[in-house]
């Protein structure tokens, strides 16, 4: 059981390091406005996160609900220290990944907001100023006729 947990924690630490690198690359790609590269990176990131979830489930299943910290404290000194060191590395890597994911999210939302505002500005410039600018016959109306123009004169 120790080997299963230890190798899974090693894979998790390496996967988190790779995830942090992918997120940093995604951030640089977002800054470069390369949407195709961002999409490709996002698929790779999602797959890596899925694999991390499988590794975590493997550890949970191997320990039958026991926490890794408790399991490490129950082991002999060298084995327990190895697991505790891996847990520390994983914790720091998860915090780094979380910070980078937050930065990417904020940049993505800022770019979305900027694009939406630019689109609204262009749309407002392209749209006619009033809904009644064009007449029924397709020509431009010089002015609207609010008064009755069909009947004029005295009765």
Report the C-alpha radius of gyration, rounded. Answer: 31 Å
Distance between the termini: 106 Å
**SSE string:** HHHH
What's the CATH class, please?
Mainly Alpha
Strand content: under 5%
| Overall CATH architecture | Up-down Bundle
And the CATH topology?
Methane Monooxygenase Hydroxylase, Chain G, domain 1
Number of helices: 4
Shape: elongated
The low-confidence parts are none
How much helicity do the residues have?
Answer: over 70%
DSSP, total strands = 0
Class of secondary structure makeup: mainly alpha
Explain what you see.
With 155 residues, this protein is mainly α. The chain has one domain (2-125): Up-down Bundle (Methane Monooxygenase Hydroxylase, Chain G, domain 1). The chain contains 4 helices and no strands. The longest helix is centred in the middle third of the chain and has 50 residues, at 77-126. It is elongated, with a radius of gyration of 31 Å. The termini are far apart. The model has no long low-confidence stretch (mean pLDDT 84).
Q: How would you briefly describe this protein structure?
A:
This protein has 155 residues and is mainly α. Helices cover 75% and strands 0% of the residues.
SSE diagram, text form:
Layout: H1 2-31, H2 35-63, H3 68-74, H4 77-126
Helix pairs in contact: 1-2, 1-4, 3-4
């Amino acid at each position: 059981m120790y080997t299963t947990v230890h190798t899974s924690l090693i894979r998790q630490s390496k996967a988190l390091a790779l995830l942090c690198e992918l997120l940093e690359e995604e951030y640089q790609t977002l800054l470069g406005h390369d949407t195709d590269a961002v999409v490709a990176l996002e698929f790779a990131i999602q797959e890596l996160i899925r694999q991390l979830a499988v590794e975590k489930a493997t550890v949970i299943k191997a320990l039958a609900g026991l926490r890794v910290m408790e399991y490490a404290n129950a082991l002999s000194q060298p084995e327990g220290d190895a697991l505790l060191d891996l847990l520390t590395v994983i914790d720091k890597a998860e915090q780094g990944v979380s910070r980078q994911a937050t930065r990417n999210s904020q940049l993505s939302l800022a770019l979305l907001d900027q694009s939406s505002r630019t689109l609204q500005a262009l749309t407002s410039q392209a749209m006619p100023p009033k809904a009644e600018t064009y007449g029924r016959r397709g020509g431009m109306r010089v002015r609207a006729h609010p008064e009755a123009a069909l009947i004029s004169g005295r009765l």
